[in-house]
DNA sequence: ATATTTCCAGAGTGACCATTGCGAAAAATG
DNA sequence: CATTTTTCGCAATGGTCACTCTGGAAATAT
């Protein structure tokens, strides 16, 4: 009878199930943080957008900081996925070019906040929020490392000239994305971002082997 | 005797003079806003750093938003002065080059916050602070216009090739500065910023007439 | 059914937010 | 010296902050 007691893989919890969809709520929260920032989005704002009460929020996500971290993860998984896809391109120059043109595309999509949720987030904050700022800063650092790794692979595979400085070129591309995020938040059009990105692309192409 | 009644240029006010130096207090306030951001710096933080009480602050500056605006002006006058100086350079390419290398210098100076106080400030905020965000955004727009004007002058004077798109090149340079500000706030060294700026300079030089 | 577990609604927690009234102290004018 | 004018220190304003206590309803397992 009770042989497979612990073998049941997805045992439903005993009590009343959650009334709202966690992922859906997270998506709404992410967009609110994206638009207002970590300090600018209050719990009242979040619960209103998510359509739940504070204690539902706190039972599903343990704190505002934790909810923000999950929202950032959601953003990386859903919106930032195209970044990873662009870098997976076989040729390094094409990869970086796609990275920039897709940034221009993503940063100006209608029906959602402009700019990047990570590139230019929590650059300054109250002292009590410094851990959160450090977390986002680390995410930016990870992206820079990703770009740098792609550049190094490009050098190894002979697509980029051996004299290329991976650190400098990665920071250059990263700065372009960050600057595009700022200008997108200031209302720059997709065309304007593409035009400025073209300058960066020209510089990248100069390093083709 | 009372001939020069209204001619007196600097008539001291009648009452008790202010106990603190206004400019000095403003400088301290600017640095606090610079480090913590508009939303991150509380009145308590500001009064502590400025060494005055709240009502002294409110009598000298009318509100937090107004104090912030004055702090931004102070920043432009004192720190941003080098930007204007760089753009005054006779040759457009040299002007833009100086602009970027001095940004690398200014953004990593010891003894004060890293990054730019304007380039990457108040990108997101609570809805009630949107007027402040718009103000800073306008300042960024003005800087972009300044760079663009310098590019146009460079084309007119024959230093830059006639095919140069002033809008795109100005946005490109602006994005570099904004990106450098982000990375400086994330802890990038002056050398790292100079290295990435060199990529931008190469692209600028490509437009030499 | 009954028992058990969890969710959700209203209201409220102390703490901190930007901002201010009040009265005393201080400096300049007459 | 007396008057005027202004600053400044203490304390407090209502409001919002992130966060939670309590109680009853709801949905599962037994």
From TrEMBL, chains A, B:
Residues 42-61 bind DNA. GO terms for molecular function: DNA binding. PROSITE patterns: HTH_TETR_2. Residues 19-79 form the HTH tetR-type domain. It comes from the Bacteria. Pfam families: TetR_C_13 (PF16925), TetR_N (PF00440). Keywords: DNA-binding, Transcription, Transcription regulation. This is TetR family transcriptional regulator.
């Amino acid at each position: 009878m009770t042989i497979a007691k612990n073998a049941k893989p997805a045992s439903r919890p005993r009590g009343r199930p959650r009334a709202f969809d966690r992922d859906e709520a997270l998506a709404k929260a992410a967009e609110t943080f994206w638009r207002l920032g970590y300090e600018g989005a209050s719990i009242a704002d979040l619960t209103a957008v998510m359509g739940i009460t504070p204690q539902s929020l706190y039972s599903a996500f343990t704190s505002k900081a934790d909810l923000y971290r999950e929202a950032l993860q959601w953003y990386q998984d859903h919106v930032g996925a195209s970044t990873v896809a662009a870098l997976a391109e076989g040729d390094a120059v094409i990869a970086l070019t796609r990275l920039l043109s897709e940034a221009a595309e993503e940063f100006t999509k209608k029906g959602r906040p402009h700019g990047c949720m990570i590139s230019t987030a929590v650059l300054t904050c109250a002292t009590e929020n410094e851990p959160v700022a450090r977390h986002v800063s680390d995410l930016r650092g990870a992206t820079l490392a990703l770009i740098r790794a792609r550049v190094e692979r490009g050098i190894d595979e002979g697509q980029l000239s051996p004299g290329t400085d991976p650190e400098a070129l990665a920071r250059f591309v990263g700065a372009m994305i960050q600057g595009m995020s700022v200008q997108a938040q200031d209302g720059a059009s997709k065309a304007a971002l593409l035009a400025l990105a073209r300058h960066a692309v020209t510089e990248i192409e100069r390093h083709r082997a």
